[in-house]
Inverse folding.
């Protein structure tokens, strides 16, 4: 019997079926050991000796492997075909050797790029040794990550309370996000106007055009600066007659894109499907490990952690045959297309991501895939087949339409597909076609309009744009991007709002600290150069311990120096770099300088302070003056108030409610600032959102908060009421049975119907609904989205939806089955009951 070790239980089950009874396949379920999470796991002074610790939850797996190996005659290590897979195989061999379990039994390393019967059986015929260079590249990365993380992090804990850790690549990704936020804050918005028209030919064919010349001057984007200038131009245009002065036609080709790599798949899935990087990799992992498609479980795509864009010659041949069968030989280029990666430091060791069988189109297996799997497989299949197709050919046309005196010119652009080529698989888009125009013929001006615009700051990073930027800079590796972005969110350095990465106060302060005191080690070029050296280790051209020694010899003296940093120096550096964060423009004096006068004592100066849980603004007259103020987006739970300690004079009295005649008060309670109406036994109260400062609340605003929840209006499509309010978890919109979070600022009292409808639309994939009445007649069956995913509910019985269901496609009958099954299950935990003890008996004890 031969013992085969893979990583995933699903993969183990599938491969065991392929190999038969002469093999036993066991899953390691990822790494079985790692460096312990403590200082000293890597010892630079002892030739970078590394101490390994077995994961407690893997002890059972290792025991099973040892037990099975005793009766096996061969050990086959078949973990994933990348650096991490190689490392898992190496770790297992090291552990089994230390237990003297292997002895003289042969140990083979086998890799396959896809989980299909043919690929697995072929791989078993070509075993090899464990790749030492890949293992050393892994050891170098783990050692570097550990040395940087466990050297800088203790300094953070001592010098910068509230910060959790700093990672080698994670800190550089955070720097990108924070620098983009600074760009946005410093951006000056400018107004400009554009003018567009509709012309008609022969009173029947309309086409649009944009103004490019006026008064014989070519218009730049910002040339029409305001409405009055736009109106002058409109008056001049409306007085003119127009004819065609020039027509240009050009035949152009559009070439297909390369097949997917890990990062381009993550980018496209984010842009087109709205999937985050982690979600994309989770779905891709399942497609790779295998889906039961009727006859047997088989892998549908090749290995999804790769930065190679090339395909095997066999795959290309199959693609060309498939294209010919589906569309004809005219859709195949004369020679196969060859792609090269544009990403910095790309390693072309593996194929691009492709379907394992291109003849297996998405529609043919749609019944075996859930909604997410189908969408991602469809994306991969179309990208792969189009990558080897003929170019699309288009006629692009540009027509100039000028006034008789040539002082005004509009330009109309259009295109027409002559040969679609790979366009048969592009996203749907309408070609802008122009009518058959001739030079010198007259056209009628049907309509001309001006539009107001404002220059926009650079957008915040999405998963897609951040991954693209990191890849361009050569930072990190494709397999790590998803986990890096998730770590930033888990540590509250970054929040995701509508798919965009917004740096939080904690993350911005950490980046400012690293910029000032560890700047070299989070520079983009330094990180990219280190990645190049690590790849050189993978190629066997550089000894990994030499790399570690070179790094440590430079890093250690700097580390020792930073350990003695003075608190005042840190505060000064952070204030200088983040002035706009700590003292916003709204708080500036007339001369543009930050207003740092304490609003409570009037003679103290506001400055940055570091509390037990993070940073806050405090008064220099402390402890006589106890004014503190949270920093924007502060979510650390620090020793500043939930909003701030500002309170109005007259014991918090804001004024009198004109309707009830009751006092409106602002008060401070154990959970923060709140507003109260009247002072009877049970007065009406409401909390205020965390991003609303207490000092900004006047009587009008307080009454607006007290009026919550408020009806905004009816949804124009469904006629369902939409209301806004503040609940246990902050401000929300209520629509039907759904509660949709909105920003924790004044949005809840200002939001109008149009804005609310847009927010509801953006959350459409999470909207719950009433499925119908339960047959027993005691209530409605609901489908909802919760913190842990979608579920169905009836009379407080909640049943989580299996992955094969979505909120959109679950029906009443299916929901009732899930609820019945859930109700039949015994409770997971039983409440402990303790005998009641009287107060007297307690006192005696």
């Amino acid at each position: 019997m031969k013992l085969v070790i893979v990583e995933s239980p699903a993969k183990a089950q599938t491969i065991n079926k392929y190999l038969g009874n002469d093999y036993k396949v066991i899953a390691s379920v990822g790494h079985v050991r790692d460096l312990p999470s403590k200082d000293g796991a890597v010892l630079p002074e002892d030739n970078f000796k590394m101490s390994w610790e077995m994961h407690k939850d893997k002890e059972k797996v290792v025991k099973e492997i040892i037990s099975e190996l005793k009766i096996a005659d061969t050990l086959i290590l078949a973990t994933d075909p990348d650096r991490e897979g190689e490392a898992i195989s190496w770790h297992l061999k090291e552990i089994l050797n230390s237990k003297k379990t292997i002895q003289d039994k042969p140990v083979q390393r086998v890799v396959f790029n896809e989980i299909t019967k043919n690929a697995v059986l072929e791989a078993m015929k070509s075993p090899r040794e464990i790749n030492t260079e890949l293992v050393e590249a892994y050891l170098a990365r783990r050692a570097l990550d550990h040395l940087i993380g466990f050297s800088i992090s203790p300094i953070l804990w001592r010098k910068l309370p509230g910060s959790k850790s700093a990672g080698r690549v994670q800190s550089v990704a955070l720097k990108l996000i924070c620098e983009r936020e600074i760009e946005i804050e410093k951006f000056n918005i400018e107004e400009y106007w554009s003018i567009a028209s509709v012309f008609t030919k022969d009173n029947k064919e309309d086409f649009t055009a944009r103004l490019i010349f006026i008064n014989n001057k070519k218009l730049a984007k910002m040339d029409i600066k305001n409405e009055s200038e736009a109106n002058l131009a409109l008056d001049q245009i409306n007085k003119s007659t127009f004819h065609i002065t020039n027509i240009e036609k050009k035949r152009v080709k559009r070439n297909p894109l390369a097949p997917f790599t890990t990062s381009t798949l993550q980018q496209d899935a984010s842009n087109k499907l709205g999937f985050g990087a982690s979600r994309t990799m989770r779905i891709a992992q399942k497609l790779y490990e295998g889906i039961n498609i009727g006859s047997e479980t088989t892998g549908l795509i090749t290995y999804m952690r790769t930065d190679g864009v090339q395909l095997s010659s066999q795959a290309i041949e199959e693609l060309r045959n498939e294209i010919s069968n589906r569309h004809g030989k005219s859709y195949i280029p004369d020679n196969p297309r060859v792609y090269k990666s544009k990403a910095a430091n790309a390693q072309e060791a593996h194929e691009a991501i492709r379907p394992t069988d291109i003849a297996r189109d998405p529609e043919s297996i749609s019944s075996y895939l859930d909604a997410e799997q189908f969408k991602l497989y469809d994306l991969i299949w179309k990208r792969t087949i189009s990558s080897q197709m003929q170019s699309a050919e288009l006629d692009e046309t540009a027509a100039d339409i000028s006034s008789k005196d040539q002082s005004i010119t509009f330009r109309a652009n259009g295109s027409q597909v002559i040969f679609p080529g790979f366009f048969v698989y592009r996203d749907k888009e309408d070609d802008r076609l122009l009518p058959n125009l001739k030079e010198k013929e007259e056209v009628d001006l049907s309509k001309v309009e001006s539009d107001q615009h404002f220059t926009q700051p650079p957008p915040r990073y999405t998963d897609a744009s951040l991954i693209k930027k990191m890849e361009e800079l050569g930072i990190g590796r494709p397999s790590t991007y998803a986990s890096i972005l998730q770590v930033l969110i888990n540590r509250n350095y970054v929040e995701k709002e509508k798919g965009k990465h917004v740096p939080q106060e904690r993350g911005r302060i950490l980046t400012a600290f690293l910029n000032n005191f560890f700047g070299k080690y989070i520079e983009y070029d330094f990180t990219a150069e280190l990645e190049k050296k690590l790849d050189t280790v993978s190629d066997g051209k550089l000894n990994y311990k030499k790399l570690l020694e070179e790094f440590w010899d430079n890093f250690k003296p700097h580390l020792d120096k930073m350990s003695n940093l003075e608190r005042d120096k840190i505060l000064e550096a952070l204030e200088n770099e983040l002035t706009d964060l700590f003292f916003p423009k709204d708080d500036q004096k007339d001369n543009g300088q930050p207003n740092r006068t304490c609003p409570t004592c009037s003679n103290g100066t506001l400055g940055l302070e570091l509390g037990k849980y993070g940073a806050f603004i405090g008064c220099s007259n402390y402890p006589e003056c106890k004014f503190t103020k949270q920093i924007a987006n502060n979510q650390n739970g620090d020793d500043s108030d939930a909003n701030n300690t500002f309170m109005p004079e007259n014991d918090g009295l804001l004024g009198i409610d004109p309707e009830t005649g009751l006092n409106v008060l602002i008060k401070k309670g154990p959970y923060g600032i709140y507003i109260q109406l009247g002072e009877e036994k049970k007065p009406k109260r409401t909390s205020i959102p965390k991003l609303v400062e207490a000092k900004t609340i006047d009587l009008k605003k307080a009454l607006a908060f007290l009026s919550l929840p408020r009806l905004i209006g009816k949804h124009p499509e469904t006629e369902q009421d939409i209301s806004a309010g503040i609940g246990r978890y902050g401000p929300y919109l209520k629509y039907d049975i759904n509660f949709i979070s909105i920003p924790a600022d004044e949005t809840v009292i200002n939001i109008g119907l149009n804005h609310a409808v847009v927010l509801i639309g953006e959350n459409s994939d999470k909207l719950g609904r009433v499925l119908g009445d339960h047959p027993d007649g005691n209530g409605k069956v609901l489908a909802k989205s919760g913190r842990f995913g979608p579920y169905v509910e009836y009379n407080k019985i909640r049943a989580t939806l299996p992955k094969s269901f979505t909120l959109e496609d679950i029906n009443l009958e299916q929901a009732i089955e899930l609820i019945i099954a859930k109700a039949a299950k015994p409770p997971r935990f039983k409440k402990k009951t303790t005998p009641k003890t009287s107060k007297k008996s307690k006192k005696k004890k």
